[in-house]
Each structure stands twice: as C-alpha cells, then as structure tokens.
C-alpha cells in the first residue's frame, strides 16, 4: 500500500512511519523539519517538506497515486496550537487535496474527550474529571472537533481514532476498541498502539465512516 502520512514527526506519526515501513508499505512522510523525523533512510520512504499544510494545491502531488492518507496531526505538531488552530485547517486542506488527487481513504487521530461520554464511567468521571480536562485543553479539543466535522462532511472514506492520554511505551497490538463510541474506563494507551490502530483501520471495512475509541 502507498500511504501519505501527515504529522510524521510527532510521537504518533513517527510510529506510523516506522510500522508502515516494517509492514512493507511505501510511505510519503510529510514534515516541516526533516531532521525531526528520526526514521532511518529506507527504500520505501519518501520525505516531503511542506511548510504550509493549509495549501491544498501544494499537497496534491503528495497524494496522487496513493492508496490512503493518515493524519497524525495534533497539538504537539505546533507550539502555537493553543493560540492558533492547526489541525482543523490543515485537515480541511488535506481533504480538498485528496479529492483533487482521487484518494478516498483517510484515517485520522483525534482524542477521546472529543467524543461522547461513556455512561458506565460513573458520575465523577463524567461530571467532574472530563469537564475539567475539557476546560483545561479547550482550544486543543475545539481544533480537533473542527477537524472531525470537516472529515464527517467530506466525501472521503474516513476513520477517526479517539485515544485517551498518550504514553511513550512499546507497541503491543493488544488494546480495546469500540466502533462508534469511546472505550469504557479509558485511561491511557501508547502512541505506538495508536499508530497500530491507524494502520489497521485502513483495511478494516467495519471502521469506514466511523469514529473508533481505543484504550489499553
């Protein structure tokens, strides 16, 4: 499979690139600073430097002939994310470029608090802890909500992955997954397992046009 990865220098994106190459895929890693990629040279790896991810026309050549797109964009890709939305505007441009390039499959990472509450999590989690978290990171989640709205309104065959707090731990390939809802009692998951989920979903028809909750 030929995959273009946005946000390739972030914690999740770097894992996507590594795992995709290990699985035999051809990867175009879209970056602002190639020195931050941290992935060894590989016959299946192309690194594309793009300073402005909101320029849809500039993204089209990176998508022509590809089978799928993965967006691992998030607040960590830009230190100014709290003051200037990053992910929503970028994904809107990616969707426009996908349409022009004739690419339909998209997997994107979001966050569990953007999704609906899980009734079984209890009153304290739903009425106290989550509201505090959503207020503290309201700009981040607002940006991701804009992204999800744009994806849902697009013609793409999309999947949105919603993880809880991310950890720098090894890939296990063993995590809980709920299609169409968040995972009950979700606390953490490794960035490597989020990457695994993004890649796995590309060939799973059950996840098309669905938000998928994941957690350890």
What would you say about this model in short?
This protein is an alpha/beta fold. It is built from six helices and ten strands. It has a single domain, classed as Rossmann fold, CATH 3.40.50.720.
User: Over the alpha carbons, how many angstroms does the gyration radius reach?
Assistant: 16 Å
If you average the pLDDT, what whole number results?
A: 89
| Distance separating the two termini | 27 Å
The CATH topology turns out to be Rossmann fold
Shape: globular
- The overall strand count is 10
Explained architecture:
About 3% of the residues have low confidence. α1 crosses α6 and α3 packs parallel to α5. The protein has one domain: NAD(P)-binding Rossmann-like Domain (Rossmann fold). The chain contains six helices and ten strands; from the N terminus they run βαββαβαβααββββαβ. By secondary structure, it is of the alpha/beta class. The strands form two sheets. Strands 3-2-1-4-5-6-10-8 form an eight-stranded mixed β-sheet, sandwiched between helices. A two-stranded parallel ribbon has the order 7-9. α1 links the parallel β1 and β2.
